[in-house]
Amino acid sequence: MTVRPPIVGAAVWTAVMNRAGHRCECRGACGKRHSASGSRTQGRCDLENGKHISKKGEVVLIAMPRDPINEGDFATAASLPARRLAAMCPLCYDAVFAKIRKAVKDLPPQDDGLFSVEEFRVDPASKKQADVGAA
Ligand SMILES: [Zn+2]
Ligand SMILES: [Zn+2]
Fold it and tell me: Does the structure show a pLDDT above 90 at 64?
């Protein structure tokens, strides 16, 4: 099967997927609790590359920035190293960006500090990883 990396180059995408075991690394950043199907998933989404079929076809994981708010635009995301990216299934990916879009929409205009994006924020110098998924 030919898998086209949706955001980043093939080498980086492959590195991210190998590290992730070709399984979605979402641990709830999308808003879903990924523990519903039992302890087997250990709170992590269990969708894997090529092993699931969605309405849009075979599931192909996306290499998504761990800090989608500050690094979510295409040019930035494409330049990130593998360790700054998380493997996400399209469902979690869409849900995370829907949450961000909604949060941005809900921001009061010209008002700082009322909305916290802590759950997505990672200090670039920090070794800590965002909730998007720990390696
Ligand atoms: Zn997922
Ligand atoms: Zn998820």
Answer: yes
